[in-house]
Inverse folding.
């Protein structure tokens, strides 16, 4: 597959804050990549560096071989970008805003434009200032997805959208991905991202979390059993090597040795729990393991 | 496209600015017959009251025995020194802050700079429209001296168009210098208020310096005062002298153009490196 975006050892500092620290990342043509991380992890800075809105202190980032710093115009011709903060001219109507923003691009994918407009059903005759936050975001998404370019960079596309709007956007992004679009999407909406992206890349404190750490978290979580009881079950009588954390009537059981997890599950089921879950870790669980647990530890 | 959008944004303010210039000019011309009559009787007393030599010279020019000379000197003061310096600089700063700072504050700059268009073109497309909106009213208002002098009662003099055009050109360059400075500041100051406050503070300080006899030579308003415009309106300064000086060197016109170009080149250089 063709390498569309390549970031190599990207670093960026704002005053005391190291926004990006030696981040390397590649995106192949036709893939959808999700960029995940808490606020301040460096997601938006990375995306801005990719299109030349921000200049890295070290390293480089290129789109189809064009460096965003040295050839910003060539990069901008190859990328359509959705800013993280909705940036629209409030005194323009939706139609005027569309015409203005899309007028800079050489080629517009009319089919996708119609698809976006059909999906979002925006009142294009009204001034943007009369739009709700969600409608503004939908208009911005329409502007970002309609140009015919090799790469789409979307910074928080789900922001300000309610559940129904998010559903519409998810379907739209899946549809576009099926058409072979290459997308780099940053979002806090892990579920939405998980359904669209081929792979997720995690950032933490400006650093790219390597795939092996994510796999490690996934494996650790796969060996965790969450149990809830309606009455006090007393001691669980689990074998040595099993760690148990108790929060009221809820237990988090972690089995670190090589014993099959089903053995522990059998033992716990004998206590007749009200709820029990184990096995494949969800995206939220991995996120929690990578970020929330870490920040809790830092707080302690 | 950017130029058209910019025009749509600034056209109302441009119209208000032109109307303001016209209102000030009409008021000044309507007052001239009374002032001329009073000056004929009490010019000496008024001159004596003036605290500085340059102000005394201004009164002497207004009180000239030749009514044409007096009227021209009066228009030089009222239209060019007062009207355009006040309104022109104010509108240049007001519209100039909108070129980058307002877009930055509202977040639309990020959208604009992520379009496939060079930053220099973005800046230039916006600036030339604003520059025209600042300059065209100066020419129109100054040329309207001719019909207004003919229509309004009590005016027996008139001023030929070429000298009004010459003075308008100099005044436009002076005002454009403030526009270029505003654009330059906008590239590294984050808010419109900060830019306007800085330029406004500079203007106030310069006006203050101008009115202190011993240090007024250090004021930028020495380039755009009664003593600059009065000889131009009197027809004593050729176009060549305006631009190249009397000995074909650097006249005030060329100096202003060079400053404007330097400020705008600096603004373009910084805008290309601007990070969001």
């Amino acid at each position: 597959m063709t390498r569309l975006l390549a970031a190599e050892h990207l670093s960026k500092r704002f005053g005391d804050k190291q926004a990006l620290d030696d981040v390397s990342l590649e995106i192949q043509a036709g893939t959808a990549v999700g960029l995940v991380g808490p606020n301040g992890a460096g997601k938006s800075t990375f995306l801005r560096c990719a299109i030349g809105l921000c200049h890295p202190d070290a390293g480089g980032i290129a789109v189809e071989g064009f460096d965003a710093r040295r050839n910003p115009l060539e990069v901008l011709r190859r990328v359509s970008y959705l800013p993280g903060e909705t940036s629209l001219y409030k005194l323009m109507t939706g139609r005027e805003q569309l015409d203005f923003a899309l007028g800079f691009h050489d080629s517009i994918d009319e089919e996708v434009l119609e698809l976006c407009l059909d999906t979002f059903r925006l009142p294009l005759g009204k001034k943007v200032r009369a739009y709700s936050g969600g409608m503004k975001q939908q208009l911005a998404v329409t502007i970002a997805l309609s140009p015919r370019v090799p790469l789409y960079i979307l910074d928080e596309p789900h922001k300000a959208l309610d559940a129904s709007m998010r559903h519409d956007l998810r379907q739209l992004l899946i549809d576009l991905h099926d058409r072979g679009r290459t997308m780099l999407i940053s979002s806090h909406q892990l579920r939405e991202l998980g359904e669209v992206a081929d792979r997720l890349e995690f950032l933490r404190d400006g650093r790219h979390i390597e795939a092996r750490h994510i796999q490690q978290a996934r494996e650790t979580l796969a060996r965790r059993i969450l149990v809830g009881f309606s009455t006090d079950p007393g001691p669980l009588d689990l074998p040595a090597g099993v760690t148990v954390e108790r929060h009221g009537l809820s237990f988090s059981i972690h089995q670190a040795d090589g014993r099959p997890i089903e053995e522990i599950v059998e033992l716990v089921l004998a206590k007749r729990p009200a709820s029990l879950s184990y096995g494949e870790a969800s995206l939220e669980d991995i996120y929690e393991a990578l970020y929330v647990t870490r920040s809790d530890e830092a707080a302690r | 496209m950017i130029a058209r959008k910019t025009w749509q944004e600034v056209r109302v303010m441009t119209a208000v600015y032109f109307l303001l210039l016209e209102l000030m000019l009409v008021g000044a011309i309507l007052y001239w017959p009374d002032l001329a009559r009073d000056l004929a009787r009490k010019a000496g007393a008024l001159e004596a009251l003036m605290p500085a030599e340059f102000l005394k010279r201004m009164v002497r020019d207004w009180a000239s025995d030749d009514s044409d000379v007096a009227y021209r000197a009066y228009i030089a003061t009222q239209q060019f020194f007062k009207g355009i310096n006040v309104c022109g600089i104010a509108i240049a700063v007001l519209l100039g802050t909108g070129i980058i700072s307002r877009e930055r504050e509202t977040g639309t700059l990020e959208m604009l700079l992520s379009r496939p268009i060079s930053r220099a073109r973005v800046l230039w497309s916006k600036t030339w429209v604003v520059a025209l909106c600042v300059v065209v009213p100066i020419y129109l208002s100054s040329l309207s001296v001719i019909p207004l002098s003919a229509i309004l009662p009590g005016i027996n003099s008139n001023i030929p168009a070429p000298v009004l055009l010459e003075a308008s050109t100099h005044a436009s360059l002076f005002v454009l210098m403030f526009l270029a400075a505003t654009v330059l500041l906008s590239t590294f100051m984050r808010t419109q208020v900060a830019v306007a406050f800085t330029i406004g503070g500079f203007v106030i300080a310069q006006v203050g310096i101008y009115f202190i006899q011993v240090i007024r030579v250090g004021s930028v308003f020495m380039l755009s005062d009664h003593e600059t415009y009065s000889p131009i309106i009197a027809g004593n300064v050729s176009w060549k002298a305006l631009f190249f000086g009397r000995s074909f060197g650097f006249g005030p016109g060329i100096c202003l153009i060079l400053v404007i170009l330097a400020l705008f080149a600096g603004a373009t250089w910084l805008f290309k490196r601007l990070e969001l």
In short: The interface with chain B takes residues 48, 51, 53-55, 72-73, 76-77, 79, 81, 83, 85-91, 100-101, 103-106, 140, 143 of chain A (CB under 8 Å). The mean pLDDT of chain A is 86.
